[in-house]
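Figure 6 in text form: structure in, sequence out.
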């Protein structure tokens, strides 16, 4: 049996990858995502709410059925920002064990960053110059610098859900809300760069997770979300700037009219795009390479 199952539970979404490792390269058998918003209200209350736990439990029951069908030799579930920060993380872990039969690993931000880097670069050519991988999640953003393995990593507490709930509360956000979000994001991005790449040595920026891939899909002008078109697409800084401004000016209803927009991402995508734009501005990057391979692939590889 060569199948393995990896689960990534973040602040906004929970995802399952069942991968066949028998060939020269891993082959996806199942790759699915559910928006469960585990971190809803967490920044304000410090706790995972009951509705969020119930949404996550429902998704895990669906995942468990798929895992039983494919019979992987091992299952690893990693839980990130929301589970790190919550006062009632034990309640979350107990719920997961009861459904999945596996204890979720609540990993550090640095470990999250290194897993993300491994997944992102696995199907890229070997590097001769440093590349910066940024994983813009719901509650945190990971900065990782390296060639083919991670040399330096830092997780900072900015993400699309956290920034939306903290600052961008109007629909659409007000000028004052946007300004406050920009200042908060800029400060954390500066901390990320200071920790991993103070000299701005990276020549390539690779962006991970739904905020980046959605911005890439919009830049490509897609009518529907297509992973094959988005994976390794290069998006210019000018396009990121224009799309961010457009998303910040739109209401949630207008964002939903974009064919590539997941309904569970429409209310937080503007904050995610703002994080990406700030990272590109501070790093002096003219483009970002969008990757569909990320921490989920890194988790699967770690099992192997």
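Output sequence:
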């Amino acid at each position: 049996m060569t199948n393995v199952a990896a689960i990534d539970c973040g602040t906004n979404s929970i995802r399952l990858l069942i991968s066949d490792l028998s060939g020269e390269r891993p082959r996806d058998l199942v790759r699915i995502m559910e928006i469960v918003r585990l971190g809803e209200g967490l920044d304000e209350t410090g706790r995972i709410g009951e509705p969020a736990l119930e949404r996550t439990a429902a998704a895990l029951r669906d995942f468990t059925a798929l895992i039983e069908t494919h019979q992987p030799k091992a299952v690893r579930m990693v839980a990130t920002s929301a589970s790190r920060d919550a006062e009632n993380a034990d309640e979350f872990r107990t719920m997961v064990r009861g459904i999945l039969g596996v204890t979720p690993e609540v990993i550090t931000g640095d470990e999250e960053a290194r897993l993300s880097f491994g997944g992102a670069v696995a199907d890229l050519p070997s590097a001769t110059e440093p590349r910066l991988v940024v994983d813009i999640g719901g509650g945190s953003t990971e900065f990782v610098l390296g060639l083919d393995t991670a040399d330096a990593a830092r997780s900072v507490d900015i993400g699309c859900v956290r920034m939306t709930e903290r600052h961008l509360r109007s629909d659409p956000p007000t000028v004052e809300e946007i300004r406050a979000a920009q200042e908060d994001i800029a400060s954390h991005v500066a901390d990320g760069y200071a920790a991993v790449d103070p000299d701005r040595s990276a020549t390539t920026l690779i962006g991970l997770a739904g905020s980046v891939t959605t911005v890439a899909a919009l830049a490509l002008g897609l009518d529907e979300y297509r992973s094959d078109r988005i994976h390794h697409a290069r998006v210019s800084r000018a396009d990121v700037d224009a799309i961010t401004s457009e998303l910040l000016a739109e209401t949630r209803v207008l964002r939903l009219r974009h064919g590539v927009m997941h309904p569970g991402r429409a209310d937080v995508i503007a904050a995610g795009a703002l994080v990406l734009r700030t990272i590109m501005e501070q790093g002096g990057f003219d483009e970002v390479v969008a990757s569909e391979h990320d921490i989920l692939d890194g988790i699967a590889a770690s099992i192997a």
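Caption detail: The mean pLDDT is 93.
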